[in-house]
Amino acid sequence: MSPKNIAADEIYIGKNTIIEPSAVIRGINGNARRIVIGDNCYIGTNVQIICDDFSLGDYSKIQHDTNIHGYLPCHIGHNAWIGQFSIIDSIGGTTIGNNCGIGAHSQIWSHIKYGDTLEGCRFLSEKPMQIGNDVWFVGHCIVSPIIAADKSMAMVGSVVTKDMNYNEIYAGSPAKSISDKIGFQFKEVSVSEKFQKMRAYLQQWNPNARSIEIVSDVSEIDFSKSDISFFNVSDRTYTKRSSEEEIAFMKFLLPAKAKFTPII
After folding, report:
1. In this structure, what are the phi and psi dihedrals at residue 27, rounded to the nearest 5 degrees?
2. pLDDT reported for residue 118
């Protein structure tokens, strides 16, 4: 990261994070108040983040030519994927949860503003954009200020103008739920199935791994073992130790095998 491309009064950049030199990160009128970017992130070429209060979780990627801007805070969780040429607006404030995907060329808007109100234009509003966990906008989506519940999904080219319900899939312009026709984004998977699958992933990645342990419940974690990264399948959390093995295993799991967030 070049020191010339980031300007903030309070800055935290995590370990192993790459910010391309052509990216620009600053506030609306100069220095941002606060910029926090987690560990093992990537911010691509020509990305612009112009926001006074911005945060990005671990293992998140913002691909090239994406624009993130707004007066109010923009907070994005862990394991995010923001595709190239996307726009995320935070004029009304934007919160994006963990494990979310914003496909390429998508637009996420938290305001409607342009027409001359003196002349009587009725379309002027700012409203928080609230996107839950495991939400996926597949690509080329245009999203008005809404609440997208956990695990909801919008198919390619959707124009989303209304709130999205838990685990439902939407399509069209304006987007409507099609889950009654094609089902839901996520099916139910038992804890035991998740445990067996994660054990198989660990064996596939490195059968000789010494510092990774898969557990079914938080009660099985020995927090005194600071050299072990415990992955709890019941709530997809892990004890973040930042060891070489842990980082390599996380990168093996992402983006589609499994997504875990640090135990708080």
Report:
1. -90, 180
2. 87
What is each CA distance from 25 to 2, 12, 19, 69, 156, in whole angstroms? Answer: 11, 12, 10, 10, 29
In sequence order, what DSSP letters do the residues of 36-71 get, joined into one string?
A: EE-TT-EE-TT-EEEESEEEE-TT-EE-TT-EEEES
pTM equals 0.94
153 near 176, Cβ under 8 Å? no
Q: Are 260 and 239 in contact (CB under 8 A)?
A: no
Contacts of 179 (CB under 8 A, 6+ apart): 167, 168, 169
Maximum C-alpha span of the chain: 71
Spell out the per-residue pLDDT of the chain, length 264, in tens: 444 689 999 999 999 999 999 999 999 999 999 999 999 999 999 999 999 999 999 999 999 999 999 999 999 999 999 999 999 999 999 999 999 999 999 999 999 888 898 899 888 889 999 999 999 999 999 999 999 999 999 999 999 999 999 999 999 999 999 999 999 999 999 999 999 999 999 999 999 999 999 999 999 999 999 999 999 999 999 999 999 999 999 999 999 999 999 998
The distance from CA 35 to its chain's CA centroid, rounded to whole angstroms, is 16
Q: How far, in Å, CA of 61 to CA of 101, rounded?
A: 10
Supply angle C-alpha 236, 200, 230, rounded to 5: 40
Categorise residue 78: left if φ over 0, alpha if ψ from -120 to 50, beta otherwise.
Answer: beta
**Is beta strand 124-126 parallel, antiparallel or unpaired with respect to 87-89?**
unpaired
Q: DSSP secondary-structure letter at 235?
A: T
Does residue 80 contact residue 60 with C-beta atoms inside 8 Å? yes
Residues with Cβ < 8 Å from 195, sequence gap 6 or more?
Answer: 214, 215, 216, 233
